[in-house]
Amino acid sequence: MKPPRFVYHDPTTRDEALAQLMTYADEAKILAGGQSLVPLLNMRLAQPAHLVDINRVSDLASIRKEHDGLAIGAMTRHREIERSPLVHLHCPLLAEAMPFIGHPPIRSRGTVGGSLAHADPAAELPAVLLALGGHISAESQEGRRRIPAEAFFVSELQTALASTELLTEVWFPLAPPRSGASFVEVSRRHGDFALVGAATQLTLHEDGTIAAAHLALLGVAPTPVRIQAVEALLQDARPNATLFSEAAEQAMAALDPPADMHASAQYRREVAGVLVSRALHTALERAHQGGQL
Amino acid sequence: MSESSLPPQEKRLIQVRVNGVSHEAQVETRWLLSDVLRHVLHLTGTHVGCEHGVCGACTVLFNGSPIRSCLMLAVQAHGADILTVEGLAAPGGALHPLQQALRQYHGLQCGFCTPGFLMSIYAFLQEDPDPNLSDEQIREALSGNLCRCTGYQGIVAAVRHLLTSAQVTTAPQVEPGAIAEEERV
Amino acid sequence: MSTRSFGEPILRKEDQRFLTGSGIYIDDIDLPDMLHAAIVRSPYAHARILSIDTSQAAQLDGVKAVLTYQDLTLAANPLPLLIPHPALTHPHTQYALAKDVVRYVGEAVAMVVAVDRYVAEDAVSLIDVDYEPLPVISPDHLEVAASPGTPLVHEDTPHNTAAHFVQQVGDIDAAFADATHVFERRLRIDRSASQPMETRGVVARFDAFEQILTVWDTTQGPISIRNGLAVLFGLPAEKVRVTAPDLGGGFGGKIMLFYPEEILVPLAAMRLNRPVKWIEDRLEHMVGSNHERGQVHDIALALDANGRILGVRDRFWHDTGAYCPYGIIVPVITACQLPGPYKLPNYYSDATVVYTNRTPVSPYRGAGRPHGVFAIERILDYAADQLGIERAEIRRRNFIQPDEFPYDVGLTFQDGLPTRYDSGNYPAGLERALEMIGYDYFREEQRQAREAGRLLGLGLGCYVEGTGIGPYEGAHISIDNQGEIHVATGVSTQGQGHQTSFAQIVAEVLDVDVVKIHVTTGDTQRFAWGTGTYASRALVVAGNAIGLAAQAVKEKALKVASSVLEVAPEDLELLDGRVCVKGLPTRGLSLAALSIASNPIRYAYGASAPDLPAVLPTRPGPPLSPGEEPGLEATRFFSPIHATFASGVHAAIVEVDIQTGMVKVRKYAVLHDCGKLVNPLIVEGQIYGGVAQGIGGSFYEHMDYDEHGQLLNASFMDFLIPYATEVPHIEIDHIETPSPINPLGVKGAGEAGCIPVPAVMAAAIEDALASFGVTVDHMPLTPDDIRKFGIR
């Protein structure tokens, strides 16, 4: 399985990369970490005429704490995020999701920008971004724009990015005090794509009721799914087993999952409910413990 | 008149250090790093099992980090420092402690997955893990490499031995690219 | 110093090169001027080929040849049928490149030869094949393939039935008529495949000057390939050399006569007068290398009032795929091995082998035994539960007892010889396995776990495995003038450590350190008689041949020493690489010196020559007596009278998360009897690997075909092989009931690990979910399947 022919470009500056994307647009694919794209090239399922390798573009990898969020450059490798003290401290949901992404060699090369732009429905990072209500920064020769998570994931393997745009940065909000996060997933083998997963963060009022609830599911639809009805149910409520059970029921009712060889629609729906319940319980415990994993 | 209906693939000259030795090679921009290591540099110890990143047989160290060489274009390795299985044993042939441990615990049979395991274990031990890892945790560290022969039992035993013995990795390392973390108010 | 190593877990000799990346696997072979091949494969499961346009591909820069069926000439006949059988009334094999019709996704249609594999694949994409789709036979329920009205895979094969055969013992109707209890189940094992880490490959070079064809091939049977190629290309066998290099696993899928590429690559090399290499990639391997395991059984068990088996009736269907190149060996083995360690006074096995539009089927580790064991173990468990007998107890009541050997099962095994169990101790095996798994206190542990909301279950499975079948294997041993010992045998190696275990056999006889013993397997130039490595036979058959050859060399050494030292052979002994006078170790000669002395020529070659007298004692007659040969070497063969039967018991404790359907194997124990152990380390390694494959076959691995004959999970992303996290720690203990039918007393061990695993896992899941009233009738199980068990 060898890649088909393509014209190879390796820009070293952002401007160069954007110019190439403008020129080649739909005929080009961006090579970031390569952990999703190169298998497709090897299987000849992707046959782009032009390959724009952005690994040598400077200034695309960084982790920066801003006053209300973490700004992570698109080319930041998963392994750097996994090891980052900033991420562990300020975005525990993201930190907990990282080890589920494949295996260490995949995380050595895979990037946060690449994972989000690839938009696999069973991937971890899209669900985390959606749950927390983060956003993407994208640039093209025509300018920059910010795309909120809820507008970014359009369909399976499809995002709101234009073919002339480069995803440059991802922004995750900081976890407020009295927050607890939990990321859980079920996969056939360790490190596989999830059959279904849940990403949640709970923030508590001083009196112990829920100040904010964030919840997104992966593997249950063509894109990650954030269920407003469930979050509304949890908002300002006193957390307990009955509430979480009801949240799980409502989450299941809102889902119409696909079936494939690994799991039926019924499985994904019902196990989503199980994971919602488990994740909420764990998030609550952690919120009580001061937010640390 | 014969005509190629496909355009020729560009060739580039790359420079890469492998096991401490500098190499120059003309490579097509679509050639995979695994193929270039094996068939241009003739380092056939790195094996190819799937070419889609699942089996781990092609794992090498790239600037100190474990990667799937089947998922990297060779041109992307220009300027990089690579460690393959051929770089583990001492120049005189004395086995590296990792290799000795796998042998001692019968952690290989056909040997095809072995180089990938060695490099993955090498990378894992570089992280200075807790010597008291449970069986489950050791297996998690080993997941990502498939073996069809051993049932993993000997490999797990070898890693346990390495964790609890004084042996650590000794070959030269390259610092992975560091991320600057800035605090901005 | 004694260097006895038979039975010792000595470390392996081959490890040095594997650990340093210096093994030579097929894709490591790079010859000057070499070309690379790629294959066009059918994307349709059943179609007529209307036309093939290769013009664009042929014109691509770097392409040297494009071949279709029309170009085959010498290879234009269907591929050989490896194992005919009287019941195989409608055998079919494919052509090396498809002629007119393709019958499975992946069938080879054309071959490109180019300067490298990248260009070859480019050319493949430029080849335009016009297919006319035909009806596809790929049913969810295998029996449907044989139903009237189902379209045909082969026009001349009614009901898609390649073979139908019956094996029977006693009077089954009477058995069922007399029965107090009758139980019936329908059971299913899904199609799977061996999937070694290394795919297949062939490299061929034809030396036109010497007219010698050299082939490197990832085959488990190089001698068969060599003989087959010689006949096919009209070359003398001595001018064809086939070598199996280091192989990255085999497990059965690498033995055929032939896979198409094993003919196409030599043919291309001969035609182009340049070396040609073909390396199968993983996607090709998923459809282009053989599968196995798909069977459906309707089994019925007749018991008396005490739970003793009166008879078993088993009607089963075996999916052979689009062709049956390996005959019906797998279902024959299923039929023969189903009785297992139990006394079945009456048995009726009715097998229908059906064609489907899927990849052909040939043996995969276990080779039909896992299916038979699944059937008998599941029906016994079911019967035990229904009767309120403990599952272990129903087995005890039906075991063949240790004093009942040899025990004739009454069937004909895959080698055409009687299924006669030679030795074993099944009751002791069961008790030991139960002890290892902690059977006595498990019920309490299970109860406590249930109170804590955890579901634990225990399962066990027993099996008997026919190993070490003939027809024969051979070995050549020679000791050179440096005292180094060279062993060559016709079997091949795919990770079993033959270079170590075979050396241990020689070391035991010659009392020499294994470091001086060099074993070559799988090279027809070194040894060209035999069949290959499969069916858990290499150690038994080749190992015994090696033992006999070593013994012959030892006798020769004693004879030569006797002549040189002028001492009777009975007063000499071979100790530590020297033949010396008993009780007088200083008076002796090294094997190196004896090697020199054994060649009665004028000049003594070798560093040890000075150890010999300047003038050797003369004796009457010519320097070489009639019938005597120069040198310290011998060739011997071993041909077993029939298979030797290994056995074992596996037990496991699993934990089921009924909410997610995920299963964790908490404990796994194997009790194993393969007779005498040459190297316990190697035997245990084989068992660990087999268990891992068995777990794969229980929860992860199967070939997922849709009704269009498309393989939906045709990559490692979706065909799931267990990682270390999915395989438990495995405890092993041994019982040794030596084989009385070979000199070493050994039995095979290669397949034991995987045989009973699906039965064990099914039993354990049922036990864990007993409160849900679950019966497990098929393997593998997905989390979805398991979760559904919990939905009442």
Description:
The complex is a heterotrimer of chains A (293), B (185) and C (792). Chain A has 293 residues and is α+β, with helices and mostly antiparallel strands. Chain A is 36% helix and 25% strand. Chain A has 3 domains: 7-56, Uridine Diphospho-n-acetylenolpyruvylglucosamine Reductase, domain 2; 63-173, 2-Layer Sandwich (Uridine Diphospho-n-acetylenolpyruvylglucosamine Reductase, domain 3), CATH 3.30.465; 180-288, CO dehydrogenase flavoprotein, C-terminal domain (Enolase-like, domain 1), CATH 3.30.390. Chain A has 12 helices and 14 strands. In chain A, the strands form 4 sheets. Chain A has a 5-stranded antiparallel sheet with strand order 4-5-10-6-7. In chain A, strand 4 (63-65) and strand 5 (69-73) form a beta hairpin. Chain B is α+β, with helices and mostly antiparallel strands. Chain B has 2 domains: 11-87, Ubiquitin-like (UB roll) (Roll), CATH 3.10.20; 97-164, DNA polymerase, domain 1. Helices cover 26% and strands 16% of the residues of chain B. Chain B is elongated and about 55 Å long. Chain C folds into 3 domains: 31-134 and 199-247 and 255-288, Aldehyde oxidase/xanthine dehydrogenase, a/b hammerhead (Aldehyde Oxidoreductase, domain 3, Alpha-Beta Complex); 377-468 and 644-789, Aldehyde oxidase/xanthine dehydrogenase, molybdopterin binding domain (Aldehyde Oxidoreductase, domain 4, 2-Layer Sandwich), CATH 3.30.365.10; 470-638, 2-Layer Sandwich (Aldehyde Oxidoreductase, domain 4), CATH 3.30.365. In chain C, strand 16 and strand 17 form a beta hairpin. In chain C, helix 8 runs parallel beside helix 9, helix 9 runs parallel beside helix 17 (757-768) and helix 16 (680-699) crosses helix 17 (757-768). Chain C is globular. The N and C termini of chain C lie far apart (69 Å). The interface between B and C is large, with 67 and 63 residues.
Characteristics of this structure?
heterotrimer; A: 293 residues; alpha+beta; Uridine Diphospho-n-acetylenolpyruvylglucosamine Reductase, domain 2; Uridine Diphospho-n-acetylenolpyruvylglucosamine Reductase, domain 3; Enolase-like, domain 1; 3 domains; 5-stranded antiparallel β-sheet; 14 strands; 36% helix; 25% strand; B: 185 residues; Ubiquitin-like (UB roll); DNA polymerase, domain 1; 5-stranded mixed β-sheet; 5 helices; 16% strand; elongated; disordered C terminus
